[in-house]
Specification:
44% of the residues lie in helices and 0% in strands. It has 94 residues and is mostly helical. It is globular. It starts with 16 loop residues before the first helix and ends in a 19-residue tail after the last helix.
Length: 94
């Protein structure tokens, strides 16, 4: 294994949503997404309110709540015991 150059800073690193998506796509394409989630799936990231609402609007504009329980939960179309929506117990996690 090649040793990574680890980040030694103490502050959070700002990266774009595009970068996050590309990392997830890469992990999935290489068959490593499930293993990564098993180890790091409980890690938290902060998301700006404008992005939260952009995601909700994007999902709604494409009626994705009709195709995905996760999309419905994110949009707020969830059962009362699904709060906060990103942690709804009815949504299967990878």
């Amino acid at each position: 294994m090649t040793e990574p150059r680890l980040y030694s800073g103490r502050q959070a690193v700002n990266i774009t949503v595009g970068t996050v998506v590309e990392i997830v796509r890469m992990l999935d394409a290489l068959g490593q997404a499930a293993d990564f989630l098993r180890v790091h799936g409980e890690a938290r990231v902060s998301v700006e309110p404008a992005l939260v609402n952009a995601v909700k609007t994007f999902l709604a504009s494409r009626d994705l709540d009709q195709q995905s329980p996760l999309a419905a939960s994110i949009m707020g179309m969830n059962q009362d015991d699904c709060m906060p929506p990103y942690e709804c117990p009815h949504i299967p996690r990878g």
